[in-house]
Amino acid sequence: MNNEEKRCSGCGVLLQDENILQEGYTTNLENSICQRCFKMKNYGEYQVITKSNDEYFKILKEVGKTKDLVLYVTDLLNLEEDILKIREYINNKMILVLNKKDILPKSVKEAKLIKYFEENHVYFEEIIVISVEKNLNMDYLLKRIKYFQTTKKVYVVGHTNAGKSTLINKLIKNYSNQDAPELTMSPLPSTTLNTVTIQINEYLTLIDTPGLVDMRSLINYVDQIMLKKINPKKEIKPRTYQLRKNQSLLIEDIVRLDYVEGEKNSFTLFLSNDLKVKRINSSRIDLKHLQKSTYDIKYDNDLVVQGLGFIKIVNKGKVDIYLDKNIKVFIRKSLI
Fold first, then answer.
1. Which of 49, 74, 99, 259 has the smallest number of CB atoms closer than 10 Å to its CB?
2. pLDDT over 50 at 64, yes or no
3. Which CA distances in Å does 220 have to 48, 100, 190, 208?
């Protein structure tokens, strides 16, 4: 029996009870969530489903045809290289929501983060720093949503793992006067598979969209054990290493950084506290399964490994990075 109308309240996929191997499977069409969401919510069992970004781009283009306000949620530890790329699909009024402030050191001020984007010519109606985990600035975010919204509908967009569903669940908990179901959350990409509509109250209806999958993010190339280590659960304690030429940093067995040219330099790592880091001589280890890329560093640059975090480098120099060839690395002006 097929159900042509009912969708999973956790991930938005169409529910079906015919094929256990296909997305949307449920043992009973009276259920409100699919088997995949049920197992994630109740047992922490994660099942990866790979979706084409082409499907997501179609959804974003449809959002762009509306006049509705959009919340663009991004992860402060894993900011996209081009924060404005979303404008290729959506030209609506948009609030940039910088999530997971609680993961960055407390010494990092909100005003400095906002100024960073304003100085880099990033235009949004407003830039708001939040922490869903600590309930930071949630009241202010709701206030600004009310100010900028054009209809009752507000779309929530962003890349996978940015915390969109977590944010919506917090808004439900804090402000909903409806019996709204919670969205499914997990550390895996592609948890939300289709749009999910949630009525918060009489003036606000949020529409969650599937996260854009960055296929060059590290999280797509590690097992679940490493994925849990990569995703920080509490405030990061930055680790600073003074390196001379021909010294290296080894992050677990997934990334190696060789300092190949320059004066003594400071390397500060902003990544999960659970990840092991070793300082070694460059000649001591050979990671033949990883690919080398060379980067010229200017003064006060961040070297970003997508999905892992970033390394702040104080002085100019040259580094070799060894990691999976599919993973994106880029240089930017220091965020902190």
1. 49
2. yes
3. 10, 20, 11, 22
How crowded is residue 43: how many other Cβ atoms within 10 Å of its Cβ?
8
DSSP 168: H
Q: Which residue has the higher pLDDT, 20 or 290?
A: 290
Taking CA atoms, 157 is separated from 85, 114, 164, 295, in Å, by 12, 19, 7, 32
Q: Which residue has the higher pLDDT, 121 or 154?
A: 154
DSSP string for 202-262 = TTEEEEE-PPBP-TTSGGGSS-HHHHHHHS--S----EEEEE-TTEEEEETTTEEEEEEES
Nearest residue to 318 via CA among 209, 212, 243, 238: 243
Please state, in angstroms and rounded to a whole number, the distance separating the CA atoms of residues 283 and 162: 37
Whether pLDDT at 52 is above 70:
no
Q: How far apart are CA 140 and CA 119, in angstroms?
A: 23
pLDDT, tens digit, 9 for 90 and up, residues 298-320: 999 999 999 999 999 999 999 99
Check if the beta carbon of residue 302 is closer than 8 Å to that of residue 276: no
Tokens standing for 247?
């010294």
